[in-house]
Amino acid sequence: MPLQSTPLDKLPVTQLKGVGVQLKEKLAGLGIQTVQDMLLHLPFRYQDRTRVVPIGAAQANTDVVIEGEIRAADIVYGRRRSLLCRLQDNTGTISLRFFHFSNAQRQNLKVGGLLRCFGEVRRGSSGLELIHPEYQFLDKRAPRPLEQHLTPVYPTSEGLTQQRLRKLSAQALALLSEGSVRELLPEGALDASRYPTLEEALQFLHKPPKNAATDLLAAGQHPAQQRLAIEELLAHRLGLLQLRAQSRQKSAPVIPPSESLSQRFIRELPFRLTRAQQRVAAQISSDLQQPHPMLRLLQGDVGSGKTLVAALAAIQAASGGYQTAVMAPTEILAEQHRGNFASWLAPLGIKVAWLTGRLKGKARETQLKAIEDGSAAVVIGTHALFQEQVIFRNLGLAIIDEQHRFGVHQRMALKNKRQADNSAPHQLIMTATPIPRTLAMSAYADLDCSVIDELPPGRTPVNTVVISNQRREEIVQRIRNACSEGQQVYWVCTLIEESEVLEAQAAEAIADELKLSLPEIDIGLVHGRLKPSAKERVMSAFAGGDLQLLVATTVIEVGVDVPNASLMIIENPERLGLAQLHQLRGRVGRGTRESHCVLLYGAPLSSQGSERLKIMRQTNDGFVIAEKDLQLRGPGEVLGTRQTGELDLRIADLQRDAHLLTLVKTIADDLMQHHPDRVQALIDRWLRHRLVYADS
Ligand code: ADP
Ligand code: MG
User: Fold this and answer.
1) Measured from the CB, is residue 336 less than 6 Å from ligand 1?
2) In testing the pocket of ligand 1, which one of 278, 297, 307 has its CB within 8 Å of the most ligand atoms?
């Protein structure tokens, strides 16, 4: 087939000139396999090489083309040896600095030479400087033309130069002009006076004319960018909706409500369900009565009582004769759920089994058997529940706590634990902290959503203060006071590196230090390196009040519930995301006593760090905090593992482009109804190479 008539999504990138085996691999690493992929590999910024800036007008921290005559060229010995050239035009002078240079270079760059340079202007020891600029000699008699377009800068990887990528995208663009990338949006879906066509948008973004609106481009707000952002968001949404449609086609057990058991359970509680809990529990109960799998996301702020709602669902399943799997992200949390569920469910005659990766030997056999023969109606565990040896007799409901730590594929693995063909258990996914609305709309479009938007009555908001660790002494005194009044205290250590070992060491050091300064206080230590049995011992000693101060790493982040703890110190809170801090802070303020959280930061604090801690001080509302976290850190950080491969957006930005989401939703519905044939093409165009759920 001649290149010109091949659709570019079918044309391998190896058809471009100069792409051999090695380059092919490198491109594949960037997700580029076809010429269409090449075109969708978009610049993340541009350089303006279309005009010469007078040296006198060059500004620090901008990219410029300048031209001038070399007036001096010397080797200087500062902190590092460098070659320094003074370049002058009739508006001023500027320095070019080379730390690495060859002899030939040094001889060429001599006084009197005429240069054109391109580089970033920085403030240096000799005033404004260009460090290692690109340069070429000029000949007055034969002027060199300047670029006619803005120069794209592409995301790249090691060993793949910008020049290379520019050449390849130029070749791809030449093929594009043959009209070979299919327009997939429905006719009239976009206001044509506002947005360019797909082809125009791609041409523009790879090769913007020199008068292009660079401020819009830099902000990602140019109509050409927005046109593609819409399409990308659309593809993501369609991908998730497709996933949802696939699971809706499966069958699931119809589980009738269990009035008597759940009434009994609720009567025995020492408190009343909040109205929000009742509403959400009713939604779930009705989902369980449908012949298709429930796929529900349960959101609620820290401490809003999600576990109880989960227990109600498990009771319904058990009374209908089905098993429930409850999956937690950490051993500590699984252990705690086991405690809660066992004490809640045992009086109802519902047996709870339990499984983590560290359960071995006979104990493990016993649990596995209870799961397999169905005598355990509820099974609590960590991802050990996914393992193949775990066979459920009759799994009807999977409850996944703290979803953001699990990937979609893990959810799938659990779903597949139902034996019968084309059937799946109901799924309830609970998040640790609220997810911003825009993120929920895009990242969780495959799920229905319930929100517990009310805290149990009688909670006093945690009072948060931000204090420099230079005032550590005061804090130690504060701990002493709190403990002498019978309160309990957490001290949380954080570390920059994701190293359990270093983090454990840091926590040990702090615990030793505190034992020295607070000899009268019983101090426990818990970190990720402890054996589970040891961890359990410490946690239950703290829960039982035998320990007054618990030094911990962020392993205690999720779920731990000790209502008598009313003071928490978080060391170096600036290292954590807001959602994580909020989650940690939620460990206090669970009793009736006023609680305090001390954010003990390492001075000096960056302005972003200080901004973030200020938010923690100002609000206790997890939904507000989640929105701020999204603004400050972006969706990847906020969603955690969920985003790997799924929300890794190329051009859209959920925060910036939130205003497009309603439109995206409308177009998605239209496509599914009227152009189902285009849905797959769109998904393939944007997501093919990273579709985690393709094989599910
Ligand atoms: P989270 O939503 O963070 O998972 P939990 O389910 O751990 O919250 O509940 C936090 C605490 O609130 C627990 O001690 C739980 O027993 C208690 N709780 C749950 N619901 C209510 C309620 N309606 N009234 C009072 N306390 C409640
Ligand atoms: Mg919880």
Assistant:
1) no
2) 307
Contacts of 23 (CB under 8 A, 6+ apart): 160, 164
Overall pTM surpassing 0.90 (yes/no): no
Residue 446 has pLDDT above 60, yes or no: yes
| Residue 199, in any domain of the structure | yes
Q: Are residues 383 and 470 in the same domain?
A: no
Same domain, 467 and 598: yes
Q: 608: domain CATH number?
A: 3.40.50.300
The pLDDT, as a whole number, for residue 643 is 38
Q: Rounded to whole angstroms, how far apart are CA atoms 51 and 386?
A: 60
Contacts 24+ apart (CB under 8 A), 133-141: 133/96, 135/96, 137/108, 137/113, 138/67, 138/114, 139/114, 140/114
Task: Identify the sign of the CA torsion 497, 499, 500, 506.
Answer: negative
User: Which of 561, 588, 590, 595 gets mutated to test ligand 1 (max ligand atoms within 8 A of its CB)?
Assistant: 561
C-alpha 380/C-alpha 98 separation (Å) is 63
Overall number of domains in the chain: 5
CA distance 338 to 346: 11
Residue with tokens 């010995």: 77
Question: Measured from the CB, is residue 280 less than 6 Å from ligand 1?
Answer: no
Does residue 453's CB lie within 6 angstroms of at least one atom of ligand 1? Answer: no
Q: Are strands 151-153 and 45-47 parallel, antiparallel or unpaired?
A: antiparallel
pLDDT bucket at 177, cuts 50 / 70 / 90: confident
Q: For 11-148, list the strands marked E by DSSP.
A: 45-47, 63-77, 81-89, 92-98, 114-124, 127-131, 134-137
Contacts of 107 by beta carbon, 8 Å cutoff, 6+ apart = none
* Long-range contacts (CB closer than 8 Å, 24 or more residues apart) made by 71-77: 71/111, 72/111, 73/106, 73/109, 73/110, 73/111, 75/106
Atom of ligand 1 nearest to the CA of 302: 3
**Do 317 and 422 belong to one domain?**
yes
The reply to whether ligand 1 has any atom less than 6 angstroms from the CB of 333 is: no
Q: What six digits make up the tokens of 175?
A: 């093929």
The helix or strand, by DSSP H or E, that contains position 384, with its residue range, turns out to be: none
Is the distance from the beta carbon of residue 173 to the nearest atom of ligand 1 less than 6 Å?
Answer: no
Task: Look at residue 560 and give its three-state secondary structure.
Answer: coil
The residue whose C-alpha atom lies closest to atom 25 belonging to ligand 1 is: 456
How far, in Å, are 38, 109, 150, 171 from residue 166 at the CA level? 10, 28, 12, 9
DSSP 170-200: HHHHHHHTTT-S---SPTTSS-TTTS--HHH
Which ligand has an atom closest to residue 311 CA?
1
Q: Using 50, 70 and 90 to split pLDDT, how confident is the model at 102?
A: very high
